[in-house]
Amino acid sequence: MTCQLSLRIADFLVNTTSDGRVLSYIQTTPFATDISQSFAPGVNASAVLSTSGNNILWGDGSKWHFHSLTSDWLNYFVKMAMNTTALVDPSAVLPPFTEVAPVVQAINRSIFAIILGLNTNLFASPAGTESVKGKVYSLQPRVFMDRTMFIIAITILILNFLAAMFYYIQRPKKFLPRMPTSLASIVAYLAASHAIRELEVQKLDEKYKFGKFIGVDGKPHIGIEKEVLTVPLEVHQHFTLRPRRSEKDKVHD
Questions:
Q1: Pairing of strands 208-214, 12-16
Q2: Contact 9, 31 (CB under 8 A)
Q3: How is residue 210 annotated by DSSP?
Q4: pLDDT tens sequence across 178-233
Q5: Element (H, E) at 45
Q6: Helical spans, DSSP H, in the chain
C-alpha cells in the first residue's frame, strides 16, 4: 500500500467551540487549482506535502520486526482504529486491502490536518484590513413551559386564591379577648369566676358557660363561669368589659 498526500484548498463555513475545536463545516467555494498563493512567501507547497507525508508514514524511523508491537504512529493508529493486530502481526493473515485502505485514508487526513494546524506559519497571513463575518453561539439558561402545564398551574393558583379569599371573608369574627395559648392565659379565664370556689368544695353538679360575668372581685370579666351567672357574649362586644346596668343587676339576681 502506497499513499500520496494532496492538499486541496477552498472556503468553508466552520462551526467551532470557544477553544477552537471544529464541530461542523460547510464548503462554500470550489477547490482551488493553485494552492501556492495560500502559503507564505518562500514556502514550497510540494516540499510541505513531501515532508508531512514522510513524517506520517515513517515517523521517527520504522523498521521490520517480528512481533505485533508497532514502531510508528501510523500503524499504531490503524491497529487502534481496526481493533486488531493483524496488520502488524507477522504470524497473522493480512486483512483485505478494502478494509485497511479507508482506515489509513481517514488517519492520514486527520494527522495531516493536525500537522498543518501546528504549523500555521506556513500559510500566508491575511491582510490587516480584511475581516470575516461570523456568529457567536452561546448557551443561555432559559425556562420553557408546556402550554397545557402552564394553564393547569395558573388554574390551581386562581382556585387557591379564591378559596383563601372566601375563607377570610366568611371566617367568624374574633370573640376571645386573648388567645388561650399559654397556661397563664387559660387561668385568667377562670381565676375570677365563682366556679373555682365551688371546685374547691367538690361541688361539680353545676353547668358552666363561656361569656360575661361579674367575678368574685366585683369587676366584669370574660371567661368561664356558672351558667346562671353568665351573660352570653356577642361577637361585636368581645372588647366591651363593662356590661350594662341591667345585665349587672341580672347577674347579681
A1: unpaired
A2: yes
A3: E
A4: 788 888 888 888 888 887 776 655 556 678 888 888 888 888 888 888 888 888 87
A5: helix 45-58
A6: 45-58, 73-82, 97-118, 147-170, 183-190, 194-200, 245-252
- Check: CB of residue 212 under 8 Å from CB of residue 247: yes
Q: Which set of grid coordinates corresponds to residue 79? A: 491497529
Cα 181 from Cα 118, distance rounded (Å): 80
* Contact predicate 241/221, CB 8 Å: yes
Q: Would you tell me the crossing angle of helices 97-118 and 73-82 to the nearest 10 degrees? A: 130
Angstrom distances, CA of residue 18 to CA of 26, 134, 135:
19, 13, 12
pLDDT in tens, 53-105: 666 555 555 565 566 666 677 778 888 888 887 777 777 788 888 888 888 88
Which cell numbers hold the place of 33?
487549482
**Which residue in the block uniquely carries the three cell numbers 494532496?**
6
Determine if residue 127 is left, alpha or beta; phi over 0 gives left, psi from -120 to 50 gives alpha, anything else beta: beta
* Residue partners of 92: CB distance under 8 A and separation at least 6: 68, 85, 86
Cell of 64: 521490520
Give the C-alpha separation, 102 to 96, whole Å. Answer: 11
Cell output for 106: 481517514
Instruction: Kindly report the number of other CB atoms within 10 A of residue 84's CB atom.
Output: 15
Q: Would you give the end-to-end CA distance of the chain in angstroms? A: 127
d(CA 55, CA 6): 15
Q: Which three cell numbers stand for residue 175?
A: 370573640
Task: Give the list of residues 6+ apart from residue 214 with CB closer than 8 angstroms, or none.
Answer: 220, 221, 229, 243, 248, 251, 252
> Is residue 205 within 8 Å of residue 195, measured between CB atoms?
no
3-state secondary structure 54-81: HHHHHCCCCCCCCCCCCCCHHHHHHHHH
pTM of the complete model beyond 0.70: no
